[in-house]
From TrEMBL:
Keywords: Cell membrane, Membrane, Transmembrane, Transmembrane helix. Pfam families: BPD_transp_2. It comes from Petrotoga halophila DSM 16923. This is ABC transporter permease. It is a multi-pass membrane protein. The chain crosses the membrane at residues 7-27, 47-72, 84-102, 162-183. InterPro entries: ABC_transp_permease. GO terms for molecular function: transmembrane transporter activity. One of its GO terms (cellular component) is plasma membrane. The keyword Acetylation does not apply. PANTHER family: ABC TRANSPORTER PERMEASE PROTEIN YPHD-RELATED-RELATED, BRANCHED-CHAIN AMINO ACID TRANSPORT SYSTEM, PERMEASE PROTEIN. It is found in: Cell membrane.
Length: 209
């Protein structure tokens, strides 16, 4: 693998590092949910891409779904009084199966453009669909032309080489900047205070749940 590819993978993984940093260092609550929710976000994004949705909308939906399971971890920890690490391990383990189900397989590549035939292969019925009583998505698309090409789905289609690296670096930079700005807001300061002195935050009358 060339150095550019290694740099791109490192930049992508840095997004996970930011999430782990907030939970371990800022809030001082060990949380392994990102190990599963990060993959879930990518799986949901690619699944909606194969459904023909615009890539920006797919990324938003993937992020919302990943955040939803973070909320589930928080509810298990706060409402059921389960240790945050154990709660996150429970959710992370559950997400391994969910991710495979969402992708309809162990691994799916990010599409740049797809045809109706490729979409049918991705959405074809499996044995699990028969067990759950679910119908195949491609049954309603059987009348589509076999080589009907959909519009470009990936922002990287026209970006290759260093252009892709610059685009990924820009996304990481904006994410880091938004994280810094958030931690300086009233809620962000409260989270930092909770991580540094939980008893003090409770004495100030703030709801720590």
């Amino acid at each position: 693998m060339d150095l550019v590819g290694i740099l791109e993978q490192g930049l992508i993984a840095s997004l996970v590092a930011m999430g782990v940093f907030i939970s371990f260092r800022v809030i001082d609550l060990p949380d392994l949910t990102p190990d599963g929710s990060y993959v879930l976000g990518g799986a949901v994004t690619v699944a909606f891409m194969y459904a023909g949705l615009p890539w920006i909308l797919c990324m938003i939906l993937g992020g919302l779904m990943a955040g939803f399971f973070g909320i589930i971890t928080a509810l298990i920890h706060n409402k059921l009084k389960v240790n945050s690490l154990l709660a996150s391990i429970l959710v992370m383990t559950m997400l391994y199966s969910i991710n495979i189900r969402v992708m309809n397989g162990p691994n799916v590549s990010v599409p740049k453009e797809i045809t109706a035939q490729q979409e049918a292969q991705y959405t074809e019925k499996t044995k699990l669909d028969d067990i759950l009583g679910m119908s195949s998505l491609n049954e309603s698309q059987s009348n589509l032309p076999i080589n009907d090409t959909k519009k470009t789905l990936s922002p990287f289609r026209e970006n290759s080489g260093y252009n892709s690296t610059i685009l990924i670096a820009s996304i990481v930079f904006v994410s880091a900047l938004l994280t810094i700005i958030f931690l300086r807001t009233e809620l962000g300061i409260a989270l930092r205070g909770y991580g540094g002195n939980k008893a003090g935050i409770k004495n100030l009358g703030m709801n720590t749940e």
